[in-house]
Amino acid sequence: MAEPIYTDIFRCKKDSGTYQPNSPYKTNLMAELKKAQSGTGSGPIGNKADETVYVVTLCAGYLKPNDCTSCINKTIPLLLEKCPNQKGAAAWRVTCMVRYGTPVINNYDVWFLANEVSPIKAMDVALLEKSLSELVSMSLYEVKPGLRRYVYKDLGYGKNGTLHMVMQCTDDLLPNDCHKCLIHVSNEVKPCCNGAKAAAVFTPNCYIRYSLGDFREGGNRPSSITIN
Known about the structure:
This protein has 228 residues and is of the alpha+beta class. The protein contains four helices and ten strands.
């Protein structure tokens, strides 16, 4: 089992409010999403608090640039379709994320948590949990100094297997919030994914994924990304 079946996850932020079709918020949102599609970057846009929009995108650190762009471009119209007038929304789809809404303090706002879990269980659940605990500790150790927001690790598993794990934060998080977010999703692995051969936990700010197969197939395969 190389990878859990990818799940399209869409969340509309219910307490974010709504916007009208011809409103300044809609105009600003579409302008920022267009920037995201072209890869030119984004920042808060809007003259008033209720018109300000912030768009964040994230691609798995092992993804090739063209695949990243393709994933984001396909995700944006689907998110707008799922959340047609919500001021805040997020989508995790395959290997990328798109999120938009009004800015929050330090951009850290874990307003939803979701997961995808393989239905196939490990034969030795105790061994899997022990190995996952080791990988989590190793990965968090590298993130803690505040120098990295993406870490990939693997660990020998059983006689011939390998357990793979990736943790990653969005670029807009402060180092301490990145570390806090990754601790959060790491703590959710055991209760959500008990003994599964592969699983992932997602929030609007970070995620963790593990598998007994290498999910980076065809990617660039960096082991970490440094925070600039």
